[in-house]
Amino acid sequence: LQQLYLRRLGVVTGDGDLTLHAGSYDALSCPLGGEQVGAEDPDQVRQVVIGSGKVMVDLAGALEQHEAAGGIATLRLEQIAPFPSDSLREHLGGFPRLKEVVWMQEEPANMGAYSFVRQQIESLLPSGVTFRYVGRPARAATAEGDPDVHQSEQKRLIEQAIGQSTALAASKGGAKRAN
Q: pLDDT grade, residue 68 (50/70/90)?
């Protein structure tokens, strides 16, 4: 892990989180220490981005500075097996105007959790809600091999997730794209 992420308070595990409490673990959480990043009003949410790992920390940082963040809710998936179907269904049901759910991952489409979670998530979507993948295309290698190219790819992924939400909000008379 880069030292940059070690200094972000939201990626630090608290002492209470390290103890075992049978039945109290929620496999879904909001990034940055449980605080919802982006959406303040569930009625305004049009898009939910689900993912795990560092890319969700990067997305949360971008949403803190983006004007379309009010239409985006983020959920960090902490465990994929057994899949937290009930918890995810409950979270998605809390957004009455939801139009799209996005799975976001750093890994290429043929790697990472996407091939497993896609069917799981699609089976839980409310009627009229679409599903979309944001990530690297299928590749033989897991990484670009160049830190600058990786950083550029991270920015592209975040823009893909945020940009689509901006278009959804604008089509409903909501936020305009930030310059």
A: low
For the chain, first and last CA: distance in Å?
Answer: 31
Neighbours of 3 (CB within 10 A): 6
d(CA 29, CA 36): 9
In the DSSP assignment, the letter for residue 49 is E
122 close to 151: Cβ distance less than 8 angstroms = no
Q: How far is CA 144 from the centre of its chain?
A: 22
Task: Please report, as a single letter, which amino acid is at residue 9.
Answer: L
Dihedral over Cα of 122, 136, 162, 83: its sign: positive
Confidence of residue 179 (pLDDT cuts 50, 70, 90): very low
Phi, then psi, of 20 in degrees rounded to 5 = -90, 125
Q: Which amino acid is at 178?
A: A
Q: Tokens 């103890």 identify what position?
A: 19
* Type of residue at 50: I
Cα-based distances in Å from 81 to 30, 47, 123, 162: 19, 24, 16, 28
Which runs of consecutive H residues, i.e. helices, occur in 15-65? 54-63
Residue 114 and residue 137 in contact, taking contact as beta carbons nearer than 8 Å: no
Rounded to two decimals, the pTM is 0.77
Across the beta sheet with 28-29, what order do the strands follow? 28-29, 72-77, 47-51, 100-108, 130-136
